[in-house]
Amino acid sequence: MKRKLTLLVAALATGLVMNTSAMAADAAEYEAALDKARQTLSDAESKVQLWTTSEILLEDAARAAAAGDFDLAVKLVNEASLHAELAVATAEREKKVWQKSVPK
Amino acid sequence: MKKFLIACFLFVVMANAYATPEEDRLALREFFAQRFPDLDLNEMTNGLYAFDEGAREQWLEMEDFPPYEIAIEAGEEDFNQPFANGKSYADCFENGGIGIRQNYPRFDTETGEVVTLEVAINKCRKDNGEEPLPWLTGELANISAYMSYTSRGNKMNVVIPDDPRALAAYEAGKEYYYTRRGQLEFACENCHMQSAGSLLRADTLSGMLGQATHWPVYRSKWGEIGTLHWRFQECNAQVRAKPYEAQSPVYRNLEYFLSYMSNGMELNGPASRR
Question: What is the distance between the alpha carbons of residues B208 and B210, in angstroms, rounded to a whole number?
């Protein structure tokens, strides 16, 4: 009985540790997300006009990381990437439709 | 019958894709003529003051002692100041640089690029061993203001030479004008055609016609005189699109298109705006 209880506590503790590591971002995760975001922004900017928001979000992310809030930092970095992707999507759509606005 | 229909379809597609700049210009004038049947289109060189009577009265009063006057005087002095090598701006331009603004931007068939008046001024400096000036305001804007002042009353006469690169530059500017961008997904056209004359918060929006005739401009918001590319940057930022560098190819092409659309309209720069 005692052995079963020990195993159960060990299993719960292991699960808790794994769950915590999966939830909380750290500096390494932030740096990885930042590298990816920079590449996404760079690719987007070579093709289209970025939104101003992408770079603002990266600045906000840097401040969050400096304050040790890596969860927020990663979230903001990912949002910056998303805004760059949306800028590309708008540009691709507009390529097909802008002519419709020209007076004939 | 099927072949005939295909031919008709192709004709329509080709006609739309290859409207000439002059067809574009005439269609634009027709657009505004229908939109504002009681408005003298030449009044559109005065921007929002063509639409907003109250603001126009204030502006006309301000024109008695215009805030850009200092820039004209400073610009004249700078324009006539010889370079270290003894030459001057007058040596770089046709007619000594007097009364020539209506020909800018022009397409340089040697470099294959659009040359705005500001680019030509800085090129003149560089060719004479002087440092280029900042693009947006200050001495360059003053010189540009003086050159505009000497061109008042002349009619905009931007030329697109028979060179596919010139037409491509014009088309690039046109595409830019009509393309939505930024987080707010606004095209230049959304404000200055669809909503021209309407209020955007407290501001009446100017129309596209005549938008290139009166630069540089003293904007009360800026508190100083500035060049057209400053306004481009500001417009971009307002719709949350990351602005390009002043005098970048994108903005020069945009100015080329925008100026061509004002061909035949009188120059009235420099000007003052809110």
Answer: 6
> Token match 């979000």: residue?
A57
**Distance (Å) of CA B41 to CA A8, B21, B36, B177, B261:** 84, 19, 8, 20, 12
Contact yes or no for A98 and B24 at CB 8 A: no
Decide the pairing of beta strands B271-273 and B217-219.
parallel
Give the separation between CA A49 and CA A78, rounded to whole angstroms.
19
Instruction: Show the tokens assigned to B125.
Output: 């400096």
Whether the per-residue pLDDT at B181 is higher than 80: the answer is yes
Residue whose tokens read 């574009």 = B24
Which bin fits B133, alpha (ψ -120 to 50), beta or left (φ > 0)?
beta
| Nearest Cα to Cα of residue A51 among B28, B187, B243, B50 | B243
ipTM above 0.90, yes or no: no
Q: To 10 degrees, what angle do helices A52-66 and A27-47 make?
A: 170
Q: Measured between beta carbons, which residues in chain B are less than 8 angstroms from residue A51?
A: 182-183, 240-242
Which tens digits make up the pLDDT trace of B137-150? 999 999 999 999 99
